[in-house]
Design brief:
This is ABC transporter domain-containing protein. By secondary structure, the chain is α/β, with parallel strands linked by helices. It is built from ten helices and ten strands. The strands form two sheets. It has a six-stranded mixed beta sheet with strand order 6-7-8-3-9-10, with helices on both faces. A four-stranded antiparallel beta sheet has the order 2-1-4-5, covered by helices on one side. The two termini are 34 Å apart. Bound molecules: adenosine-5'-triphosphate.
């Protein structure tokens, strides 16, 4: 569905990605793990056209994305929920969700999507009038994901959704990601929390200083000695 083929990305002299290839297929959660500065965010930004790809190709459902503008890529159904839960803190939960649907003029679709998101995250329904900034960290992350889902994506890219959350909220996010997959939306999950992401993913790639060094199923990665030492603290 999403295919990254041998991409290279540089920021001036810094080579952020070198010959990175990865795939996300239907019904998959694919984890991308790696340390700070490995190039995880750059990979996601490349997919949605926020950084310029020097060479290689990125296709989604067979369409080339590398020369497309970000708004066009979003219209193709690719949605990035960036790191840092950038919700609108003075807007209510409902207004935040509305912002996620701004590309769509279809009111009926909005109501349908909103109901779907409230089904998925009942706490957001309970708090729909509450200001985003007053939600807990985990709830804000749900809202950020919910806002992304309002655009009716065909694939969701999540950047560090568990960052800064308590263990309990990390668990909430993990369950959320699984729910999204069950709704039929594949997920490319970028995480430093390898334990969480390898636990829920179907397949994973390990990125080290801009290159994919190993890949396999979540189970294989959890049993891989190097991964255990470097990313799981075992
Ligand atoms: P983290 O987990 O810390 O967010 P990451 O794996 O997402 O890290 P990236 O943010 O993709 O890593 O960064 C990859 C490399 O590119 C790093 O060396 C980083 O310093 C560099 N880099 C990222 N953005 C820029 C930029 N705008 N200008 C210059 N260098 C950048």
């Amino acid at each position: 569905m999403l295919k990254i083929d041998n991409i290279n990305v540089s920021y001036g002299q810094i080579r952020a990605l070198q010959n990175v290839s990865l795939e996300v297929n239907e019904n998959e959660i694919v984890a991308l793990i790696g340390n700070n500065g490995a190039g995880k965010s750059t990979t996601q930004k490349s997919i949605v056209g926020l950084v310029c790809v020097n060479s290689g190709s990125i296709t989604f459902q067979g369409k080339e994305l590398t020369q497309m503008k970000t708004n066009k890529i979003v219209k193709e159904g690719v949605c990035l929920v960036p790191e840092g839960r950038r919700i609108f803190s003075t807007m209510t939960v409902r207004e935040n969700l509305e912002m996620g649907a701004y590309l769509s003029k279809d009111k009926a679709r909005f109501a349908e999507n909103e109901a779907r998101i409230y089904d998925m995250f009942p706490i957001l329904k309970e708090r729909y009038k509450q200001q985003g900034g007053t939600l807990s960290g985990g709830q804000q992350q749900m809202l950020a994901i919910g806002r992304g889902l309002m655009s009716n994506p065909k694939i969701l890219l999540l950047d560090e959704p568990s960052l800064g959350l308590s263990p309990m909220n990390v668990e909430v996010v993990a369950k959320t990601v699984v729910k999204i997959k069950e709704e039929g939306i594949p997920v490319l999950l970028v995480e430093q929390n390898a334990m969480m992401s390898l636990g829920i993913c179907d397949r994973a790639y390990v990125l080290e200083t801009g290159s994919i060094i190993t890949q396999g199923t979540g189970k294989e990665m959890l049993e891989n000695e190097e991964v255990k030492k470097a990313y799981l603290g075992l």
